[in-house]
Amino acid sequence: MGKRKVNLFTIYRPGKNFGFWEMKKEEMPKGWGWLGKGFMGPVGEPLPYLSHEEQYWGPPEGLEEMRVYLTNLMRDLVAREVLEAFEVVDRIEIS
Known about the structure:
Structural class: alpha+beta
CATH class: Alpha Beta
Number of strands: 4
Radius of gyration: 14 Å
CATH topology: Alpha-Beta Plaits
């Protein structure tokens, strides 16, 4: 069995300049990577304010460093109006 991995998510609302952005693997903490993306909310229902999500995973010892990396990346995207708002979270709960 492999080493234990932990997850982080960015949940966000697209901004007026929303589109593709690049994340450089070499800038992420060692062992961390992008896992996938999706939308939040049930099919056929209005999307919540923070409607999009991206998931990352890596070793627990790099968790806080990755949280800082993602927070800085998302802040830059908000400043460029690619995103309107965001949160970096450990898990997603839909109520």
